[in-house]
Amino acid sequence: MVAAQGRTVPAATIPWLRCREVWIHAALPDDLLDALIGDALTRRRGTQGVELDVRATDRETGGSHEAGGAAVRVEGRAADLARWLTGRGRAQGLHTTTGAPLPQLPPWL
Predict the structure, then answer these.
(1) What distance in Å separates the CA atoms of residue 55 and residue 2, rounded to the nearest whole number?
(2) Which tens digits make up the pLDDT trace of 71-106?
(3) Which helix (H) or strand (E) covers residue 23, if one does?
(4) What CA–CA distance (Å, rounded) separates 72 from 100?
(5) Do the domain assignments include residue 5?
(6) Confidence (pTM)
(7) Based on CB atoms within 10 Å of each CB, which residue in 31, 52, 57, 63 is the most buried?
(8) Is 18 a member of any domain?
(9) Inside any domain, residue 107
(10) Would the CA dihedral through 47, 48, 49, 53 be positive or negative?
């Protein structure tokens, strides 16, 4: 399969891609939200022009994820972080720890 950005995707990954899309548009369980955030950061690592460190403020442990370098730390609720990282909505409720504007992210997939 060829993704919207022209990347060839192995057939074995299609179930995960479909699962993500279904749950992105529904209420996501905490474990799936954390996996989705980690997956989005992994896919963005080194290719987005900015390194991110995100922290879910609605998790007891902080729910920190790094995509390397940690030049920009973004904080907010896990659902809002997942929505922003996957390009599925506005970045309401998110902020950087420095007060700088959130980085503009290119398409996720």
Answers:
(1) 32
(2) 688 999 998 999 999 888 778 899 998 888 888 887
(3) helix 14-24
(4) 9
(5) no
(6) 0.69
(7) 52
(8) no
(9) no
(10) negative
